[in-house]
Design goal:
heterodimer, A: mainly alpha, flat, B: two-stranded antiparallel sheet
Chain lengths: ~100, ~575
């Protein structure tokens, strides 16, 4: 394990992350293009919209996150709202010992 | 060779053995679900029913054989295989733990689940139903923290309540029909509603779900893996047996797929995120039962099978993190892939499976329910399920691996998970990929006739589009800084009613009542003191006695006068 400590880990190099993201973007574009080439079976009227699934997936997730973020104002409380939790989460204790 | 014992019996004997024998013999226990499962599988065609006479009542503890319809028999068997498999994986995962409580309760719990799916009447079911509750609670208690103790008690109360409702339902069902045999019920009578609520509690219907998100994250690392496999799936099995095609369930299921994902996005405890996503997956199954066609029910059963494996896998990876780090709070994790690469890989496989990536197990079963939804004409509900599919990828598929193993470097450098945990996770991962790549393996076991083709170009393309653009949304939100950060927090849910509101009201009433009592006592004391006393020593002499009697007489007259007007 010492080796990985010394050398910079794969995802810590920004250029590696950049490459991965670029590949990911290209794949996204390819999938949208494929939507126009491949003849999809249409079962539901919504599906006639070009790239319906791509649009829906993106919008759904943004909506999900935005609503969830707003929900925090209503439902979020302090970590110790219900329980005192004094007998756990102690990083000074060795977790291996605690679990046995 | 024929198989002529109740299928749960080996588990109970193994539990007894585990309780008595020294803990170093725990390795042998792994063989119990393995051998029993294989024997059951080999003798599936020639099982004979077993009954136990209890006074005047016959308990059908193994409702199998020629008298049972083909579908019911296959349904029971598939769930039984699944539970054997789950127990086998759980036991391997638990090998490093030298805690008898978890071993014994885990074995009893798995045995009870297997007993429940072979039960032929509601009374037998009730026994196993309550055993499930009792034995599983100890997996929560075994964490041995104050929070776990309290959560375990709450869990137990709700679970036992479900059993009591089941018993009342069974009794009134018996009064109406003269039979307690398990079979199609359908909504209508009071008994059927009692059954629905009893099953609904264990299946985590909305507003009855809080026991799941409350207790599962509090259990031990091993305990949560056990818990995620059995209770809810027994409830799904029972719903499939008794309420197939019940329209109400489609709407309940759709609600179950959607509401938990909002909580999952903002939840910090990663095992609680998984607990919410478990409800989301159950929603797909409940929808399938509600639609009730052969395709939908097959989808439900297949999805239950896959869910046990991939949700178990995800809980196992989080359990490994919990074992090594001591907590699973997203806010304090990150960068663990550096020292736990294998666990990271298994977590990604589990995440890909739950998100229904092509070639992973979720893909071949979730789509059956979705296709059945369209066939049944529920277009808007289908949109809800699609939303939930995108959402599940978002919170379980990306959030779990990303915040635990990647994201910002937390500086934690825990050791890789113990070997036995890695083996268990490896088996589960292999199953996820195997079922996802060769769905025919699972399809051949399904109860109803199945000619669904998972891999066609439309389905593969649309699913990939959905997933990639959900991921794109995550990347975009993260880069814009719009993604809600992981915060140390607790989010209020239905449990707030009985953890804060009801105790609050109770305390309020108590304070009011004790205030009223104080006022009453002090005022009656001052009244008593107001009674004139002739001060001549402490003895009551004739004069004070007369005076008191006179006052008493006046009071009585007043009371008699008042009562005239009432």
């Amino acid at each position: 394990m010492n080796k990985s400590e010394q050398k910079v880990a794969f995802f810590d190099k920004p250029e590696n992350v950049k490459i991965i993201l670029r590949v990911f973007y290209v794949l996204c574009v390819v999938l949208v293009i494929a939507d126009f080439i491949v003849h999809r079976h249409i079962y539901v009227s919504f599906e006639e919209i070009p790239a319906f699934y791509a649009i829906y997936g993106f919008v759904a997730c943004v909506v999900l996150v935005v609503i969830a973020k707003e929900m925090r104002k209503l439902v979020m409380r302090d970590e110790k709202y219900y329980d005192a939790r004094d007998d756990e989460d102690d990083s000074s204790k060795k977790p291996e010992e605690k679990q046995q | 060779m024929s198989y002529a014992i109740p299928a749960f019996l080996p588990f109970f004997i193994a539990a007894l053995f585990a309780a008595i024998a020294p803990i170093r013999f725990r390795y042998i226990l792994v063989l119990v679900p393995l051998i029993n499962g294989i024997l059951l599988f080999l003798n599936a065609d020639q099982l004979s029913p077993i009954t136990v006479q209890l006074h005047t009542f016959t308990l059908q503890i193994m409702d199998v054989g020629p008298a049972v319809t083909e579908q019911d028999a296959k349904l029971s068997l598939l769930f039984a295989y699944l539970f054997h498999l789950a127990c086998f994986i759980c036991l391997i995962y638990a090998l490093h733990v030298k805690d008898k409580v978890q071993l014994v309760s885990g074995l009893l719990y798995a045995g009870s689940a297997i007993g429940a799916v072979f039960a032929g009447d509601f009374i037998t079911l009730f026994i196993f139903w309550e055993l499930l509750a009792l034995t599983s609670a100890f997996l929560v208690f075994a964490r041995r923290t104050e929070a776990a103790k309290a959560a375990g008690i709450r869990y137990l109360i709700i679970q036992v309540l479900s059993g009591v409702l089941l018993l009342i339902g069974a009794i009134s069902y018996f009064q109406q029909t003269g039979s307690t045999d398990i079979g199609y019920i359908g909504l209508g009578s009071t008994a059927s509603w009692l059954f629905l609520v009893a099953f609904g509690i264990k299946a985590a219907f909305p507003f009855m779900h809080s026991w799941l998100t409350d207790a599962y994250p509090e259990a031990t690392p091993v305990g949560t893996v056990f818990l995620s496999a059995f209770t809810t799936k027994v409830a799904i099995y029972m719903l499939a047996r008794t309420f197939p095609g019940e329209d109400l369930l489609v709407y309940i299921g759709a609600a179950m797929t959607c509401f938990p994902i909002f909580y999952a996005v903002i939840e910090n405890d990663l095992r609680k995120v998984l607990a919410y996503s478990l409800i989301n997956q159950l929603g797909f199954m409940v929808c399938g039962i509600g639609i009730g066609t052969a395709l939908a029910l097959n989808g439900t059963v297949a999805h239950a099978f896959n869910d046990v494996i991939f949700k178990g896998l995800l809980f196992m990876t989080m359990g490994a993190v919990l074992t090594r780090v001591g907590h699973v709070n997203g806010s304090n994790l990150g960068g663990l892939y550096k020292t736990m690469p294998k666990t990271t890989l298994f977590c990604i496989i589990g995440a890909a499976s739950i998100s229904a990536f092509p070639l992973f197990s979720g893909f071949v079963s979730k789509s059956m329910v979705m296709a059945a939804m369209i066939e049944a004409g529920h277009e808007y509900l289908w949109l809800m399920l699609l939303f939930a599919s995108a959402g599940v990828f978002h919170h379980a598929g990306i959030k779990i691996p990303f915040f635990a193993f990647f994201a910002h470097d937390s500086g934690l450098r825990p050791k890789e998970a113990p070997t036995n945990m890695l083996v268990a996770m490896g088996i589960a991962s292999a199953l996820c990929i195997l079922v996802g790549s060769y769905p025919a393996l699972l399809y051949s076991l399904l109860p109803w006739e199945n000619n669904y083709v998972a891999y066609d170009i439309t389905h593969t393309l649309t699913q990939l589009q959905l997933l990639f653009f959900s991921a794109l949304a995550f990347v975009w939100l993260n880069q814009k800084g719009l993604y809600p950060p992981e915060l140390k927090s607790v989010n209020l849910d239905v449990e707030w009613i009985f953890r804060k509101a009801l105790p609050g009201i109770g305390n309020g009433i108590y304070r009011l009542a004790s205030g009223a009592k104080r006022v009453a006592v002090s005022s009656s004391l001052s009244l008593l003191n107001a009674i004139p006393v002739m001060k001549r020593g402490n003895d009551a002499n004739a004069a004070t006695m007369t005076l008191r009697m006179a006052i008493g007489f006046v009071l009585l007259v007043l009371m008699a006068f008042v009562t005239q007007f009432l």
